[in-house]
């Protein structure tokens, strides 16, 4: 049985054992377990060790230690199929990442870690289908934008309760870097805006103490990319509007430590500092995860202002286009942290509503019609991607998007208006959206604005500005569909959910259309 250890890497308390069943965490494994980036014969396993009381996240304290790991075909670990031992220490913030290899395709496995006779919680994971396999269905959870300060992560709880998911796709803003204020629902650690390596490690560790986060990670592998808040708001390769070099130091240093902590604390495979990657699921789907922050040039003040600007960077752009052109999968899925569809924003007579909308969708009130933080700010890159799809006759590309705390189903058009791809945008786990920014009851002022957004943007088939929750993505040989589920109250950790909407795109037709909900295989109210 081949097995290979990858990065041991780089902190706060709770845990779950078998999916859906909470049990007391051993003191050594207070941050739970996770898995990610499933391959047909391998999956990445993650945990964080607390070898001594002083080895708190970000402290740089505590001894180096050896951790055991096991993967089994059964929850009782009577049939162990892979195992090993790895070292970790304060240089990695006592985090552990292991590539468990030699596994069977599209198979559920159980895994755990050991340290001095203590066992971690037990996680369950699933490998991808073998290359070239005929796959009749894939299902994924889809989430983004989880602000600790403003709500509880009931969206993650819902995904943890589902039994039918192959993985959870996280589209960015897994953590938020800002400080909470005195009115925050939940106070964060550290309490200030995070800037240093110790800060980022502590903030990641805090998120890994949330029971819903731990349940989700213990139940499903995750496939994640980052957006801006993993480093700083509206980040680009050379800075961020919220980063002041005079008081916060060199941006390159802050960016580097933010990325280091992310790779330490997240169950992602990385080649050096490269996060963009592609995973394959038999003949049915290729899933490309983009990095739209590390290589982008600064956001222009207006669309088209910088014709040489890039959101992808030259190397990632060529890799992405090559993957689109040479994919032999039925569906080309793209994990895309910011909206690729063009978006015109309406002028609103109420200045408070205008401020709320532009904070949400544009973050640039001086530009009443455009948001240049999304692909609208990088027209050359978007035109290159969409014209490549058009020239090659590729009609089955689906962009899976986060970032803007709202829900959208879009046709993705060329300048002529003809659609060449589709886009599904998931809303936020908790981060504030229109009704909260405008301080009005949900589904009141937003209804007229949604209608105006659809009028200005005829390629938008669905938009909902107010709700929070997860999506469920289903991929079959005939169609790709997304169902939105909305929390009734993000401030209640046990909130029920409701079905919000369902849209799909059919094979060979680069348009979205309303659909009946998928069969719901998990409860919508908590168990």
Compact description:
With 527 residues, the chain is of the alpha+beta class.
Structural summary, described in words:
The protein is built from ten helices and 22 strands. The protein is α+β, with helices and mostly antiparallel strands. The strands form four sheets. A seven-stranded mixed sheet has the order 11-10-9-19-20-21-22. α1 links the parallel β9 (138-143) and β10. α6 runs parallel beside α8. The radius of gyration is 22 Å and the shape is globular.
The beta-strand count equals 22
Mean pLDDT: 92
Strands in their spatial order, largest beta sheet? 11-10-9-19-20-21-22
Gyration radius, to the nearest Å? 22 Å
The major β-sheet equals:
7 strands, mixed
Helix content: 10-25%
- Catalogue the unreliable spans: 1-25, 364-368
What count of helical segments does DSSP give?
10
Structural class by helix and strand composition: alpha+beta
**Approximately what portion of the residues adopt beta-strand conformation?**
15-25%
Distance between the termini: 39 Å
Shape: globular
């Amino acid at each position: 049985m081949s097995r290979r250890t990858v990065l041991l890497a780089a902190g706060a308390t709770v845990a779950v054992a078998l999916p859906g069943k909470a049990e007391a965490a051993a003191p050594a494994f207070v941050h739970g377990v996770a898995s990610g980036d499933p391959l047909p014969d391998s999956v990445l396993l993650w945990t964080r060790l607390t070898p001594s009381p002083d080895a708190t996240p970000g402290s740089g304290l505590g001894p180096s230690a050896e951790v055991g790991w096991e993967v089994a075909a059964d929850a009782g670990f009577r049939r162990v199929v892979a195992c090993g031992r790895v070292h970790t220490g304060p240089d990695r913030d006592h985090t552990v990442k292991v590539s468990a290899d030699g596994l069977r395709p599209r198979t559920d496995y159980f895994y755990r870690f050991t340290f001095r006779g203590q066992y971690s919680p037990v996680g369950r994971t699933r490998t991808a289908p073998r290359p070239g396999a005929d796959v009749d269905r894939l299902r994924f959870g889809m989430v983004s934008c989880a602000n600790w300060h403003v709500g509880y992560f009931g969206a993650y709880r819902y995904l943890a309760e589902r039994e039918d998911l192959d993985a959870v796709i996280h589209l960015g803003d897994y953590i938020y870097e800002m400080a909470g204020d005195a009115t925050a629902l939940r106070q964060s650690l550290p309490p200030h805006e995070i800037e240093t390596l110790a800060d980022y490690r502590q903030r990641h560790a805090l998120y890994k103490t949330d029971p819903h986060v731990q349940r989700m990670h213990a139940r499903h592998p995750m496939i994640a990319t980052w957006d801006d808040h993993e480093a700083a708001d509206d980040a680009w390769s050379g800075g961020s509007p919220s980063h002041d070099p005079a008081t916060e130091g060199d941006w390159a240093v802050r960016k580097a430590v933010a990325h280091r902590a992310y790779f330490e604390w997240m169950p992602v495979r990385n080649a050096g500092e490269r996060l963009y990657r592609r995973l394959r699921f038999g003949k049915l789907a290729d899933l490309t995860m983009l990095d739209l922050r590390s290589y982008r040039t600064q956001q222009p003040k207006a669309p088209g202002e910088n014709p040489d600007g890039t959101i992808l960077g030259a190397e990632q752009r060529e890799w992405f286009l090559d993957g689109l052109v040479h994919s032999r999968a039925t569906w080309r899925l793209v994990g895309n942290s910011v909206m690729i569809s063009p978006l015109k924003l309406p002028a609103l007579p109420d200045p408070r509503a205008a401020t709320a909308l532009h904070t949400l969708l544009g973050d640039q009130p001086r530009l009443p019609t455009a948001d240049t933080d999304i692909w609208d700010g990088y027209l050359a890159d978007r035109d290159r991607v969409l014209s490549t799809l058009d020239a090659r006759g590729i009609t089955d590309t689906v962009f899976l998007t986060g970032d803007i705390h709202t829900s959208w189903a879009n046709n993705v058009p060329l300048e002529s208006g003809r659609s060449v791809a589709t886009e599904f945008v998931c809303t936020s786990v908790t981060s504030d959206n229109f009704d909260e920014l405008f301080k009005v009851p949900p589904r009141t002022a937003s209804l007229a604005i949604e209608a105006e957004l659809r009028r200005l943007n005829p390629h938008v088939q669905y938009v909902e500005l107010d709700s929070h929750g997860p999506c469920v993505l289903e991929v079959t040989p005939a169609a790709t569909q997304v169902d939105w589920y909305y929390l009734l109250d993000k401030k209640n950790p046990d909130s029920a959910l409701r079905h919000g909407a369902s849209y799909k795109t059919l094979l060979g037709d680069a348009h979205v259309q309303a659909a009946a909900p998928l069969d719901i295989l998990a409860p919508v109210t908590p168990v």
